[in-house]
Design a protein that fits this description.
This protein has seven helices and 14 strands. It is α+β, with helices and mostly antiparallel strands. The chain has a six-stranded antiparallel beta sheet. A four-stranded antiparallel beta sheet has the order 3-11-6-9, with no helix packed on it.
Length: 297
């Protein structure tokens, strides 16, 4: 079996899998430069909150989420017609990186049907010391449960899954730490219970968390997932509206390999296209809706 076929077999049984050496170092270096650029551009945001609305005018982010190596993985599970509807860097700074409490991704997504896949790309090394992902094998067979608000301690989602449910499943099935090298990818089912601990180490832990859907899946959330982009194949008429790919502009992103010809690609917005709401405004609204527990509404 190929590595992807092996990952698919593990995913079927356990709800998650690891695929090694997906993204090469050159592109990872660009991603790290992109994170530094975002950090300087949006000092009011914690680096755990570089959410998908910031993609709106950012050609490098669109280039990264549409990378063939990532889309090939999504196609293996979801079919040939694909969109990326969410992608955000979860970047835990040294010493005070916030945890992501136990949750199911699909509980924050209003998708019909839930034909989706989470892909997590390690930009930095992700270890138990700096707050790697932790997953409960087999929990993808659970239904989705509404998360409970949790604001008494810092955490990226301001909420968590039912603690009794997590304790029961962890006791019966164990917890797997997902340690990744830069360029490795982990994948998991939208129903899978997973979390990550705070980063109290001296090393940053940055990853890009991506959500792909089949274009037959309808995005029903309002005011949050406004930036889906078609990454392969064809849309399904009347299901979703996809944004054009953003144009490259040195004001809106970093230079990257191929940026000189990016604007000539099919699907890139025409020159002078209306930009819409400021990405920071949309991102701040999304963070507030996470705090309120209304993202999936």
């Amino acid at each position: 079996m190929t590595p992807l076929e092996q990952a698919a077999a593990h995913f079927e049984e356990h709800g998650f899998a690891i695929i090694r050496d997906v993204i090469p170092e050159g592109l990872l270096e660009e991603a790290r430069a992109h994170v530094e650029w975002l950090t300087a551009r949006y000092p009011q945001l914690r680096p755990e909150h570089f959410h998908h609305p910031l993609i709106r005018n950012d050609a490098f982010w669109a280039r990264l989420v549409s990378d063939d190596r990532l889309v090939d993985i999504a196609e293996h599970f979801l079919g040939p017609d694909l969109a990326c509807f969410t992608a955000h860097y979860i970047c835990k700074p040294p010493y005070d990186g916030q945890p992501v409490l136990w949750h199911q991704d699909g509980a924050y997504w209003k998708l019909t049907p839930m034909k989706a896949l989470s892909i997590w790309l390690a930009i930095d090394a992700s270890t138990t010391e700096n707050g790697c992902l932790r997953m409960i094998p087999g929990s993808h067979r659970l239904p989705l449960y509404k998360p409970r608000q949790r604001t008494d301690r810092p955490n990226m989602l301001f909420s968590e899954a039912d603690r009794g449910l997590v304790s029961q499943w962890a006791e019966e099935h164990g917890i797997v730490d997902i340690e990744l090298n830069p360029g490795d990818v982990s994948i998991h089912h939208p129903h899978l219970l997973h979390c990550s601990e705070p980063n109290t180490s001296a090393k940053r832990r940055c990853g890009l968390d991506l959500g792909y859907i089949a274009t037959s899946t309808r995005i029903e959330s309002r005011g949050v997932y406004l930036d889906p982009v078609l990454v392969r194949g064809e849309p399904v008429q009347g299901v979703n509206t996809y944004r054009p790919l953003p144009r490259y502009s040195p004001v809106e992103t970093i230079p990257f390999v191929g940026h000189q010809t990016w604007n000539d690609r099919p699907g890139v917005a025409p020159e002078g296209a209306r930009a819409g709401e400021a990405p920071l405004t949309t991102t701040e609204r999304m963070i507030e809706r996470l705090r309120e527990g209304t993202v999936a509404s």
